[in-house]
Design brief:
It is built from six helices and no strands. The chain is an all-alpha fold. It has two domains: about 5-75, no CATH class; about 75-145. Helix 1 (about 5-15) crosses helix 4 (about 45-60). The chain is rod-shaped, with a radius of gyration of 45 Å. InterPro entries: Kinetochore_Nuf2_N, Nuf2_N_sf. This is Kinetochore protein Nuf2 N-terminal domain-containing protein. Belongs to the NUF2 family.
Length: about 170
């Protein structure tokens, strides 16, 4: 009894993440009816553990194994081995699932980081592209201005040539 109680208690605490204080105190509703608290001081933690273990074993074995108070108070070797075996198998299963889940989350995190990097690069490239477009528009605008100036100069030169020809004709007369 004194050897299995700490084992079961540790398993319940680790597997179910139950705080130590929860295993030593009865719920508030149950405390109100106590007539002699000293009488229940040693029994309460064992009763609490029994209820937890009973529910836990029933849940993980689908009621195939029944955990009884005698499994804590006067354990039988064969049944104790069976219960501990079930608990160890469950614990190994939980650890395996936890490792697998962590792997999946790590992959997800890596992909999320990669996605973030790609989005940042895309934003950077869009910015560069927009800058080049605006520079090109600016250059195109300058080029069109230069063409207009060149055309005006060409027209003025043509006009000057025409004026020069008419002056030459006038002078030759």
């Amino acid at each position: 009894c004194d050897r299995l109680y700490p084992v079961y208690r540790a398993l319940v605490q680790n597997a179910l993440s139950i705080p130590d204080a929860s295993l030593d105190q009865l719920p508030f509703e149950a405390q109100a009816g106590e007539s002699d608290p000293e009488l229940f001081r040693d029994a309460c933690p064992k009763l609490i553990l029994y209820k937890l273990m009973n529910s836990f074993i029933n849940d993980i074995t689908a009621h195939q194994i029944e955990f009884m108070l005698s499994d804590i108070l006067t354990p039988q070797p064969k049944k104790t081995i069976q219960i501990v075996s079930v608990l160890v198998d469950f614990w190994e299963h939980v650890k395996f699932r936890e490792e697998r889940t962590n792997q999946i989350f790590r992959k997800f995190d890596e992909r999320a980081e990669r996605r973030e990097l790609l989005l940042n690069k895309l934003t950077e490239l869009k910015g560069k592209s927009e800058k080049k477009r605006s520079e090109k528009k600016g250059k195109d605008h300058l080029t069109s201005q230069k063409r207009e100036q060149l055309q005006q100069l060409t027209e003025e030169m043509t006009k000057l040539k025409v004026d020069s020809v008419s002056i030459d004709e006038t002078l030759s007369l």
